[in-house]
Amino acid sequence: MSFISERGSKKGRCFIVKYEIETKGKFLFLLLSTISLILLMVITTLLWWFISPRLHELSSILAMGILTALRMFYFLVILGIVILFFECYSQYSIKVFHKLIRFSIVILFPFNVMIGKFLCIAKDKVRESFVQVNNSFIKSKMQGLNANDILVLLPHCLQNYDCTYRITNDINNCTECNKCSIVKLKKISERYSVKIAIATGGTLARKIIVDTKPKCIIAVACQRDLVDGLLEVFPIPVYGILNERPQGPCINTDVNINKIEGFLEHFTKPIREES
Q1: Which residues of 157-172 are buried (b: 16+ CB within 10 A; e: fewer)?
Q2: Is residue 83 scored above 50 in pLDDT?
């Protein structure tokens, strides 16, 4: 990894306009999380150095209480990130710490996006990396589940834009014209006996989750919607799959069917083989 720094840009949107950094996979999010954590600790230390004399004048007990709280806060965030690194690059999972990992991610994610912008790294790249980090440690929470415990949640834009049959309420309304990937997803639903739901937006997606009460979710969406969903539905484990947008966002999108089926094959068994 190397940087060539050039201060300022014509549009004023970033400060480092030429660099070489790996923006694929888990490394990007983990790197930004480490930088965010270090910067937060430095800033907090400087602020404490300025305000601590006045706090001690007001109340030494108050000063010690705030300092203890800050130490506990950073201890938990550091521990969460350390365990996240361990789980991302090993084959082991420590389930008892997953809430702590999520806590650390929620704290650092906004700062990761800001630092990424400073380094001219697109927000979607940071989101993609976060999805991969999420998937790397979420699988352990999906062990030993039945097919009925899994919900496959899809965006409505997977359906062909010109199709006159609405499948939002029921994927079985698909007439199997083979103009989009819905027909393949319908067959996956039949083969693995998993619930597949199609949402037109976040409100409907939340209602579907409340109604079906899944123990885990396989979610397909664009970067922004997927990350928002991952953070919102916690503690329900969500395995995220980014959709493909050959014609742009929100119209005739596609998904890698092999990723969905491969995941289901790992955790469930087909109820029948296709003839």
Answers
A1: bbbbeeeeeebeeebe
A2: yes
Give dist(CA 32, CA 133) in Å, integer.
12
Dist. CA 243–CA 249, nearest whole Å: 10
Q: Yes or no: say if 173 and 263 are a contact pair by the CB < 8 Å rule.
A: no
Among 203, 207, 245, residue whose Cα is nearest residue 223:
245
User: Could you tell me the pTM of the whole model?
Assistant: 0.78
What are 241-258's pLDDT values in tens digits?
888 887 778 788 888 888
Burial label, 73 (beta-carbon count in 10 A; 0-12, 13-18, 19+) = middle
Q: Which of 27, 264, 35, 257 is nearest to 133 (CA)?
A: 27
- Which pLDDT tens digit goes with each residue over 178-202? 888 888 888 888 888 888 888 877 7
Give the list of residues 6+ apart from residue 170 with CB closer than 8 angstroms, or none: none
One-letter amino acid for residue 90 of the chain: S
Find the DSSP H helices in the chain: 27-58, 60-88, 98-118, 123-138, 182-192, 202-212, 223-232, 257-267
- Token pair of 222, please? 């664009």
